[in-house]
Amino acid sequence: MRTRDFASVALWRLVLTAAVAMIFAVPHLRGADAASLVSQPSTQSANNEGRIVFWNRFIADQRETLSGATAQERAERAIQRLEELPLNVKADEIALRPIKIEAQNGIAVVCKGRALFFLGENDLDKESGESLEVVAQVALRNLNDALQARAEERSWPVIRSGLLFTFVGLLLFVSLSVVVWKASSRALAFLRSREQTFPTKMRLLGIDLLPYLAAVVYSLVRTIAWIFTLTGLFLWVTLSLRRFPYTEPWGNEAGGYVLQLLRQLGSTAVYSLPGLLAVFFIVLATRLIVRLARALFEQIATGRVQVSWMDADLARATQRIFAAVAWVFAVIVAYPFIPGSKTDAFKGISVFLGLVISLGSTGIVNQIMSGLFVVYSKALKTGEWVLVNDTEGEVLDVGLLAAKIRTIEGQEVTIPNSVLVGTSTTNYSRLGFPDGMIISSTITIGYDAPWRQVQALLLRAADRTRNIRKVPEPYVLQEGTVGLLRRVHADCATGK
Question: CB under 8 Å to 61, separation ≥6 — which residues?
Fold first, then answer.
């Protein structure tokens, strides 16, 4: 049901966007099309070419300066004269007349004795071997087509048939899209039901591949539905544009644009395959090396493998550092093979991301460096009993960013490594007996309390407490007085 609602909303948004774009784009393009095409630069840097465009149709090119006017200025003046032509002008009123301007032979396109534009010998594309007569005939034919299109634009039967065709095409497009999205919804529902009852599990290297393959299939079904929808939208837009005289060139050229874009994307994808293959092998090799190193460091950490150059307590931290360095090196090696990595946009994004990471990871780098100091200085080890500031408990883990301590109350306290480096840490286990540590307690008693009875009670409590060693024996000392109270200190050794 959610897929159906999403498909309906997406479909109607797509249709409304296309309709609004067609309504508002044509008036703006009509006024800007000529100016934009006129200002197209030539492939030759020495000459400024100007293109004459009338009623959204190409007429001719101007390539040389004439009478102090550049090619672009000549084209702009020609467009202005063509737009000033009366609406009732006929094609037989346009003629070609050979003239000579500034010792340059050429042909002028005239209407009722008025020159619309001039085509000279210097306006020809000499590399393609154009002739003046052929270029003039082509310009005349293009101008006649443009005048005919302008006349048809004001014909109600033409406009009516175009609107009717557009409306019918929209209904067909919406119907096709609804059918496509309903079919995709049913296909997704069927595939999800089959996924739940799939008889076997597909595993590779201990990983169940079925959820990932199912996600790929679901995405493929949605992609096919979007392809059909966008194809229908493209056909409706292009065929509708062809039904109106002014937008007919856009409809005719849209297919070529799309095919050219698809051709470019295809060639780019083909040329990118070697680079993607290299990146794939680099990632695969790095992943294999990291997995082998993890297995080695795990064995060192558990004591199954003993080496002289590393303690078991440092194995896990060293494994994390090795994995991070390996992946950073893999990114550096694979970077030149990534498609588009040599473009300015990719380089700019890389610099921006590097700057953001550099500014945002200052605290993280500080914690990592402090963590390296804590780990490799062996200030803390897992299982030791420590006191950090006011936190006392057993060390559960020492990571690159923080250490975790479990207190007597069973609470887990996370202490950043920068705090460990910047404060004093009391380690009760490091210099203790081989199988235990010394714990102490200080209490205060009143002067009227029997000292020997208090001593006996403390020693009996130590004797009845589990994991308190008999040798060396616990002892109780009277340290001194605090005001009207006496302070008593008791020490005992732990062990099994």
Answer: 49, 50, 51, 52, 123, 125
Structure-block tokens of residue 102: 């500034």
Quick count: other Cβ atoms within 10 Å of Cβ 383? Answer: 10
133/33: higher pLDDT:
133
Q: How far is CA 318 from CA 297, 402, 459, in A?
A: 8, 15, 45
pLDDT confidence of residue 171: 92
Q: Are 33 and 45 within 8 A, CB to CB?
A: no
Q: Are 365 and 417 spatial neighbours (Cβ–Cβ below 8 Å)?
A: no
pLDDT tens-digit profile of 330-371?
Answer: 998 998 888 878 888 888 888 888 888 777 776 777 777 777
Give the distance, in angstroms, between the CA of residue 158 and the centroid of all CA atoms in the same chain.
Answer: 47
DSSP string, 364-376: HHHHHHHHHHHHH
Burial of 405 (0-12, 13-18, 19+ CB in 10 A): buried
Largest CA distance in the chain: 135
| Summary count for the chain: helices (H), strands (E) | 11, 15
404 DSSP β-pair partners: 397, 414
Asked if omega into 472 is within 30° of 0 (cis), the reply is yes
Q: Is residue 473 helix, strand or coil?
A: coil
Q: Name the residue with tokens 């529902």.
A: 189
End-to-end, the C-alpha distance of the chain in Å comes to 65
| DSSP letter, residue 41 | P
CA–CA dist 40, 142 (Å, integer): 19
Across the beta sheet with 114-120, the strand order is 94-101, 104-111, 114-120
Determine which helix (DSSP H) or strand (DSSP E) holds 100, and give its type and residue range.
strand 94-101
Rounded to two decimals, the pTM is 0.49
CB atoms within 10 A of CB 125: 11
Contact partners, residue 151, CB within 8 Å, separation at least 6: 87
The dihedral through the CA atoms of 133, 135, 136, 137 has a sign that is: positive
- The 10s digit of each residue's pLDDT in 145-192 is 888 888 888 888 888 888 898 899 999 999 988 999 899 888 888 888
User: Has residue 314 got a pLDDT over 50?
Assistant: yes
The predicted pLDDT at position 37 comes to 39
What integer is the mean pLDDT of 239-258?
83
How many residues are present in the chain?
A: 496
pLDDT at 12: 53
Residue 140, SS3?
helix
Confidence of residue 419 (pLDDT cuts 50, 70, 90): confident
